[in-house]
Amino acid sequence: MKILPAACLVVLVLALAGCQTAGVGPDQATTFFNEVAYRSSPGGHPVSLAARTTEAYRQAKLRRWESDLVLHLGGAAVPDLRAHGRRVMGDLAALAGLGLTETDDAEAANFVILFEDRQQFLAGVAERASCYAHIRARGGVLHHVEIHVGLRNEGLLKHCLSHEILHGFGLVHTNALPSAVNYAYWVDLPTRWDRLAVRTLYDRRLTVDMDRIEGLAIAHDILTETMDDD
Ligand SMILES: [Zn+2]
């Protein structure tokens, strides 16, 4: 059997990856939105059919910012990562229609990113994470986010930071499409789907008091309208 040169394999893999999401329409984008914005996929695992019939599932609400963001970057001086954080924050804030300023005063900020010289954080009872976000919300409205990035995990830090920033904008995990909050994709930057989800989540036609059924119908309209001009 003839062995393909490595370069051909790379081209083949890229071609397949390109095909994977080329045919995605508003229905799949809405399924993605349901997972990331309405938390139907905790930890990236789909919710069971039985759970989907409960009132609590139907009543799930969106979570998002209603105020402008004041960013503080603190901890270790890591110019590359700080630039990455600013880039992702700037991109997502613009998509969300939120103002974004930066302050040296951590107390004056509502979105804090801290770079720490450590490997892991204890994120839950039995869970360790190389970065995590502590998110505070009231009635579906986010009001304070603190992201910790452990600097000893080389190679994944940009992904880690993008992942936590997306949490900080109100998105949770998914396994529906390529995304920085999908554990199957170790991308450095938010994907097209992440950006569409953020733009949809912050569209003024959606409000944080709408339940899942009402909100998803509107999200589908928004995605149908905006998908092509992305
Ligand atoms: Zn996460």
Give a description of the structure.
With 230 residues, the protein is of the alpha/beta class. The protein has a domain at 64-201: Collagenase (Catalytic Domain), CATH 3.40.390.10. The protein has 8 helices and 8 strands, in the order ααααββαββββββααα. Strands 1, 2, 3, 4, 7 and 8 form a 6-stranded mixed sheet that branches. It has a two-stranded antiparallel sheet with strand order 5-6. Helix 2 packs across helix 8 (212-226). Mean pLDDT is 85; it is low at 1-20. Zinc ion (ZN) is lined by residues 163, 167, 173.
Largest pleated sheet: 6 strands, mixed
Mean pLDDT: 85
The CATH superfamily of the domain at 64-201 turns out to be Collagenase (Catalytic Domain)
The CATH class of the domain at 64-201 is Alpha Beta
Tell me the β content.
15-25%
Distance between the termini: 44 Å
Strand-helix topology:
Blueprint: H1 6-20, H2 26-38, H3 49-52, H4 55-58, E1 64-65, E2 69-75, H5 79-96, E3 100-102, E4 111-116, E5 121-122, E6 128-129, E7 131-138, E8 141-150, H6 157-168, H7 192-201, H8 212-226
Parallel strand pairs: 1-8, 2-3, 2-4, 4-8
Antiparallel strand pairs: 5-6, 7-8
Bound molecules: zinc ion.
Zinc ion (ZN) binds next to helix 6.
Key terms:
single chain, 230 residues, alpha/beta, Collagenase (Catalytic Domain), six-stranded mixed sheet, two-stranded antiparallel sheet, 8 helices, 8 strands, 17% strand, globular, disordered N terminus, binds zinc ion
